[in-house]
Amino acid sequence: MKILAIGDITSPGGVEHLRGGLWKIREKYGIDFCVVNGENASVINGISKEAAQTLLMSGADVITGGNHTMHNYSVHSFLEESPAIIRPVNYGDKAPGRGYTVIDTGAYRVLVINAMGNIHIEPVLDAPYPYIDKVLRACEGEYDIAILDIHAEATGEKLAVAHSYDGRINVIFGTHTHVPTADYTVLPRGTGYVTDLGMCGEGGGILGMDTGTVLYKLKTRMPTRLKPSDGECFADGVIFTLDGAVCTDITRIKF
């Protein structure tokens, strides 16, 4: 089984980039399942219902979120309606939507969990471990493959989560920093892991944002509305190949 994971979408331009090319990439690499982190896919922070629907029609099987997911109120109802879009599970039961989903592809039942770290990231949520444990217990026997998106700032926290669930979750990847890491590896008990997928959006700026506005905000500390960079769009992705429950290969792609 081949699973494609794509890093944080940073703008509507990233959505359009995937709309125009994701199905072609799935066909080219023989992808069986695709997870996209879409937490910043709309003009304002967060993701809109319309952007989420476009991504699902464009080749994403599941959309995960992060610390900005709840900022766009237009997606709250869609989080309740659609099993294909999830938010961090440790937001708790009062938040709209769910933190995990099980998708039946016909060949596999795939459990996707979305969790958020709590080091150097806001809002500060509870530690993700008891929430992930609860999901694994609740879904026992209902899935064949498990995937976890750990949306966190601290690399050490992502690694800690990965080692905690090595052999219990088949694929674990980090999101949030928009910078792809080169530490993709198969952990001792067979879990495929990478600390950060990267991003999907306009290049040429700072983490997908316009260089001038980012520098102004950092240098003056004044409130600044960031805007996407004006470079060419691209997508960072990682393909995890599984043989049964064990990850046998990890390949980075950029398109």
Q: How many H/I helices?
A: 6
Query: What does the largest sheet look like?
Result: 7 strands, mixed
Q: SSE string, helix = H, strand = E?
A: EEHEHEHEEHEHEEEEHEE
Low-confidence stretches: none
CATH architecture: 4-Layer Sandwich
Per CATH, the superfamily is: Metallo-dependent phosphatases
Structure classification:
alpha/beta
State the share of residues found in helices, binned by percent: 10-25%
Write down the domain tally: 1
How much of the polypeptide forms β-strand, as a percent range? Answer: 25-35%
**Compute the gyration radius: what is it?**
17 Å
Within the CATH hierarchy, at the fold level, what is the topology?
Purple Acid Phosphatase, chain A, domain 2
Mean pLDDT equals: 96
Cα separation of the termini: 21 Å
CATH class: Alpha Beta
Q: Please provide the count of β strands.
A: 13
The coarse overall form would be globular
Q: What is the structure about, briefly put?
A:
The chain is α/β, with parallel strands linked by helices.
Overview of the structural elements:
This protein is of the alpha/beta class and 255 residues long. It has one domain: 4-Layer Sandwich (Purple Acid Phosphatase, chain A, domain 2), CATH 3.60.21.10. Helix content is 25%, strand content 27%. The chain is built from six helices and 13 strands. The chain has helices at residues 12-29, 49-57, 76-81, 129-138, 155-164, 211-220, and strands at 2-6, 8-9, 33-37, 62-64, 100-104, 109-116, 145-151, 171-175, 185-186, 192-194, 199-202, 233-243, 246-254. Strands 1, 2, 3, 4, 11, 12 and 13 form a seven-stranded mixed beta sheet that branches. Strands 5-6-7-8-10-9 form a six-stranded mixed beta sheet, with helices on one face. Strand 12 and strand 13 (246-254) form a beta hairpin. Helix 1 (12-29) runs parallel beside helix 2. The protein starts with a strand and ends with a strand.
